[in-house]
Design goal:
Length: 248
Amino acid sequence: MSTPTQNVAVAARCVPAAVHAHGACRLHPPAASSRAPAFGRSATLRPRRAVARRVQAAQGDNEQPWTLMGRVVRPETAFSATDMRTRMIQSTLCQRLGMTPGELDAAMSELLALLPSLDRAVATMRPDMLAGLIADRSALPGKMVTLRVMLPTANIEKIVAQRPMLLLEPQWGALPERHASLLELFPEANVDAMVERSPLLLEEDVDDIVNELTRLGQATDYANGLRLLEHQPDMVTLVMNNRRLSMW
């Protein structure tokens, strides 16, 4: 049976030591523990690290990065938001095109070899547009040649990077008519340079664009609108943005 003195000693060991500073009583922090905290940053990182370890284990002892839709994915970043989005797009494309992930990667490599200017655009491109380009990749070289003949002095790679949908229907089928209309409306202008600066000119009806510029007060009349568009082809973007914002 313990004595009163022993009980007091046990109680003293259970109460944290205190020191007085500036008239306030402060407790000494508990001794450092070798165990990881139950909550906080270290705890939140554990699941992600565990997942990364499982990914590496699934791949065997090889910790080399792998390729996903043309992107290099490293084990430590395999579950970041960007790569999760890439995986979702990959799944959608595989379903649309009836391809396995390996076949899709090969098709993507082929597409980027044909159209290297799309390298950066691929990450933000709509899946339906990307699927269309992949499905039509065998026809892309011929289409690029057609564009170079149509616009001999323009930077075709730059145009395609800005508006890749020009290579797909219905835009592709309308290109000859749109181009002929530009040559007729701007007989003395450098149409190639205009299109390079604003590829939307090959997608939109120029008459509608000029009339809209007049309505917005950017041009005094139709002839003035044509001159404005000739010197500032990117005014097409202003009209398109206004259409998206307009309620009428």
